[in-house]
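User: Just a sanity check before I run the rest of the batch. Below are the structure tokens for the first item. I only need the designed sequence back.
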């Protein structure tokens, strides 16, 4: 899914809403991976017309995808538990 830009940056994810993009960027930064969002402000103005792209340096792509994959897995666990009416503690999500 990654797309390389002319300045050695790759798109590792796209988001339809700025809040989700910010959460993903925060997860990367917490893991020590620098990144930035492109199109986030335009997305806030006309959400149906734009997406926010999360970009990282090409050499950080694999690590970024791993962090984002772990984040998605944690969110899926919480959602499944919520649907089942269970309570999930933060400590249950840490491996």
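Assistant: Here's the designed sequence for the first item:
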């Amino acid at each position: 899914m990654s797309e390389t830009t002319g300045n050695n940056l790759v798109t590792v994810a796209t988001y339809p809403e700025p809040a989700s993009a910010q959460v993903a960027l925060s997860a990367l930064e917490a893991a020590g991976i620098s990144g930035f969002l492109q199109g986030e402000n335009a997305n806030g103005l006309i959400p149906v017309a734009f997406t926010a792209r999360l970009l990282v340096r090409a050499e950080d792509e694999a690590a970024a995808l791993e962090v984002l994959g772990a984040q998605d897995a944690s969110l899926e666990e919480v959602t499944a538990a919520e649907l089942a009416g269970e309570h999930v503690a933060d400590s249950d999500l840490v491996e």
